[in-house]
Amino acid sequence: MGSERNGGGADRPAEEAAKGGAPPFELPEIKFTKLFINGCFVDAVSGRTFETRDPRTGDVIATVAEGDKEDVDLAVKAARDAFDHGEWPRMSGSERGRIMTRFADLVERHGGELAALESLDAGKHPGVTRAVDIGNAAGSLRYFAGAADKIHGETLKMGRQLQGYTLREPLGVAGLIIPWNFPTTMFGIKVAPALAAGCTVVLKPAEQTPLSALYLADLAKQAGIPDGVINVVPGFGPTAGAAIASHMNVDMVSFTGSTEVGRLIMEASARSNLKPVYLELGGKSPLIIFDDADLDMAVELAVSANFFNKGEACVAASRVYVQESIYDRFEKKLAERMKSWVVGDPLNDPRVDQGPQVDKAQYERVLSYIDHGKREGATLLTGGKPCGQKGYYIEPTVFTNVKEDMIIAKEEIFGPVMCLMKFKTVEEAIARANATPFGLGAGVVTRDLDVANRVVRSVRAGVVWVNCYFAISSDCPFGGRKMSGFGKDEGMHALDKFLAVKSVVTPLRGSPWM
After folding, report:
1. Which residue stretches belong to region Disordered (predicted)?
2. Is the pLDDT of residue 1 over 70?
3. Which one, of 169, 161, 176, lies nearest residue 206 by Cα?
């Protein structure tokens, strides 16, 4: 995910301003490396640790406590006690909102340190990270702080002499499992609605990027969030993540990550307490560019929609369809544009557009897909190779002559790889856009409102952007369809995941009206 409002895909000038205005990077102090359970930083029960590495070099940044099932049990117990006996769900919504606002203030006040941690851990540009990721997290906390006292039920008009109404109650202990591509953003958009609803939380950050979540946990305590309400357990998916998904005292799970792991979480829920599961998974999103588009704007959108955040975005528009009559001009402009795209160390060079992939495994995965594209007969327009003497850098790669049955056109790559294809008619564009098992996002570039409306209503995706991309905001629901998952992050719909609807019915005796 990215954010137009804070310098993401569609707002290139804001992104450039964020980059250009960044001060020289200073390595942050690593303050928190232990598990955060019941308001305290503690070692893992097993005493085990794991290394988090700098993707620019592969060097170790820090060793972090490795949570496992026993640690998840302790975190869930703390969250359960805080929910069943603590003050958080019993506070008024306005009081929860005031504390959440203090939390947002602290996130902004410590934005420089948070951005440095996330940039170091994930290989991101610190100026953009501060504008986008830190801004998104603080924005989500503020948005849902305002929603905390606006959670209402309904009065029911019943069919006989009965009075009915509904209550929307906090669900309980929420298990939140977040990815490594936007760790601070994802912390904010998962935790904020849970807190607003009155739930307590056990959160597992990705093992590649655990540092910002631990820092945020400390800020939450400083803000006055009671002990046990937020618990952070770094660790690995098959151990800590699986323990959350299968735990009998976790009341729901919200997961962002791969489709494969999403399936495992649903299986774990089915085998345990049938807890509700909400998934935001992979994508293979189309960007459809019609022949009346502003060509320069369309090229910039295509570049941002694919290469923002190194292509490590679930909603990246990795399938770009350009109408046949403008295809050759578009391809030429795109090739020229990519000549000025800078790959390098984003922490020490403000000109850099693209840093390293998050770790060696992802680096090798992306390169393997590029090799697939070459073997299957696609043509390299740009890129296609690793770059740099160390670290996990890959040239931004554009393939042409891509066929729909090629692996690079069907599977999520999660890296800086674009598939550029041409189409003739609106009908063909819609059919090809929908010819995927995924349904997370889509983009349409046209000046024709009728065409835009037709495509918007025809493409099966959770969000469709018209003449923009990555236009994500706290008040706009975000989530997918098909194998891209279900349930919404952001917007008031995000509260639904953390609330149970209870119907209350009493008899009406002697009422003068029905």
Report:
1. 1-23
2. no
3. 176
Quote the tokens at residue 441: 């996002």
- CA contacts within 13 A on the Cβ side of 361: 4
**Which tokens sit at 357?**
């992939």
Residue 16 has pLDDT above 70, yes or no: no
Average pLDDT over residues 16-24: 55
pTM of the predicted structure, to 2 decimals: 0.94
CA–CA dist 314, 319 (Å, integer): 13
CA 370/CA 252 separation, integer angstroms: 38
Q: Is the alpha carbon torsion for 101, 103, 106, 107 positive or negative? A: negative
Q: In sequence order, what DSSP letters do the residues of 123-159 get, joined into one string?
A: T--HHHHIIIIIHHHHHHHHHHHHHTT-----EE--S
44 exposed, middle or buried (CB, 10 Å; 0-12, 13-18, 19+)? buried
Q: Which CA distances in Å does 149 have to 145, 310, 394, 509?
A: 8, 39, 47, 33
369: nearest Cα among 436, 260, 284, 246: 284
| Residues noted as catalytic | 280
- The alpha carbon of residue 140 and the mean position of all alpha carbons in its chain are separated, in whole angstroms, by 12
Identify residue 379 by its one-letter amino acid code: T
Residue 236: burial class (beta carbons within 10 Å; 0-12, 13-18, 19+): middle
Convert the pLDDT of each residue in 320-345 to its tens digit.
Answer: 999 999 999 999 999 999 999 999 99
Residue 257 in contact with residue 179, Cβ under 8 Å?
A: yes
Amino acid in position 90: R
Rg for the chain, CA atoms, rounded: 23
